[in-house]
Specification:
It is a single chain. The chain is α/β, with parallel strands linked by helices. It has 2 domains: 141 residues, tt1808, chain A (Alpha-Beta Complex), CATH 3.90.1570.30; 199 residues, P-loop containing nucleotide triphosphate hydrolases (Rossmann fold). 27% of the residues lie in helices and 24% in strands. The protein has 9 helices and 16 strands. Helix 4 packs antiparallel against helix 5.
């Protein structure tokens, strides 16, 4: 059969996917086809509202789940091998993917976005597609990951088996934060628009660092009770008995799924703190104040926490004149991650 008569999907099935299998990529775990990652821009013309074309990558290749390494744009054989490379590069920029390929079934054009190689682009035959180990080796060298840092970067995401996973911009934020911490950075600001899932993003960062045993005692700070309570029973629920609220009052609240749960608290009636937990969530107002007796955070030693996450840090927690800032200064040796939608106020 004349290859030029085949559809783009036929080219994928008969040529590209077999080439990936031959290179050692696992179809079930590492290869995803036709991955939609945006719904398209909303276009308003007078009273008429429509959506633009959704963005969809033909292939995304993952070294591990949620750790994307490569993107492939496929074209039918009436196109040249490299005709899809610009579209692939546009998608890879959005998805923060370093290695980009275009193919028409005859071979591959490979573009290395890392800048680590002398030549950014190279033509490859169908049987010369790089293996997962080869691309990960390039990535590891580009990022200058030590074996210890690599172990943290490769720590699994939390997966409850429901099929729910982070959106692409959450993956970008989570992976960037983990990588920075793995390489020794201790002050990080994550800027995410309102409604984009900052709490879920924070959970995945904390989960991976905690499971990798890089961060063993964690403090999550917010300025509203509802933020703490809902976080504990929803996004942070997998931490289970390792987690407690810095509060004296037990409270029964409802989860998103309609079930109820009693919150575990870490402060007794005499305002003594139980230091046996690993994940603590608290209101700034509950653990500090203008009077010395209100500064409950001093019940912990300055080195007790090795990670502090500050939700909505633009609301005053990072201001020079804020009384709450003394919490961050007291635990200054800890890695501190601020999360906000308005970074100019931090």
């Amino acid at each position: 059969m004349d290859k030029r008569l085949l559809s783009e999907r036929d080219i994928c099935t008969k040529y590209i996917t077999p080439a990936l299998r031959q290179a050692g990529w696992d179809e079930m775990l590492q290869i995803r086809e036709e991955v939609s990652f945006t719904k398209g821009r909303i276009i308003v013309r007078g009273k008429l509202v429509t959506r633009g074309k959704a963005k969809r990558a033909d292939y995304i290749l993952y070294y591990k789940p949620n750790i994307p390494l490569a993107l492939i744009e496929a074209k039918d054989n009436s196109h040249g091998v490299g005709d899809g490379i610009q579209q692939a590069l546009d998608y890879a920029t959005t998805l923060d993917i370093p290695f980009v390929f275009s193919s028409n079934g005859d071979g591959f054009l490979f573009h290395d976005r890392t800048g680590a190689q002398k030549e950014k682009e190279a033509s490859l035959t169908l049987d010369a597609f790089p293996s997962p180990a080869a691309l990960w080796g390039r990535f590891r060298a580009w990022k200058e990951l030590t074996p210890k840092a690599e172990q943290i970067v490769l720590q699994d995401y939390f997966d409850d088996g429901s099929g729910k996973g982070p959106r692409y911009y959450q993956v970008n934020a989570i992976n960037a934060a983990i990588e920075a911490i793995a390489k020794g950075r201790n002050r990080i600001l994550l800027v995410m628009a309102t409604g984009t899932g900052k709490t879920y993003t924070a959970f995945q960062i904390i989960w991976r660092l905690w499971k990798a045993a890089r961060k063993k005692r964690i403090l999550y700070l917010a300025d509203r009770n509802v933020l703490i309570d809902q976080t504990m029973v929803n996004d942070f629920r997998p931490f289970g008995t390792a987690m407690a609220k810095l509060s004296t009052a037990n409270k029964t609240i409802e989860r998103d799924d309609g079930t109820t749960v009693d919150l575990t608290t870490a402060i007794d009636k005499h305002r003594r703190i139980d230091t046996a937990y690993e994940i603590y969530l608290g209101l700034y107002q509950a653990i500090t104040g203008p009077e010395e007796r209100q500064k409950l955070f001093r019940e912990f030693s300055p080195g007790f926490f090795d990670l502090i996450v500050i939700d909505e840090c633009h609301r005053g927690s990072a201001a020079e004149d804020s009384a709450w800032r003394e919490i961050l200064e007291y635990f200054s040796a800890a890695t501190q991650i601020g999360m906000t939608a308005t970074p100019s106020n931090c």
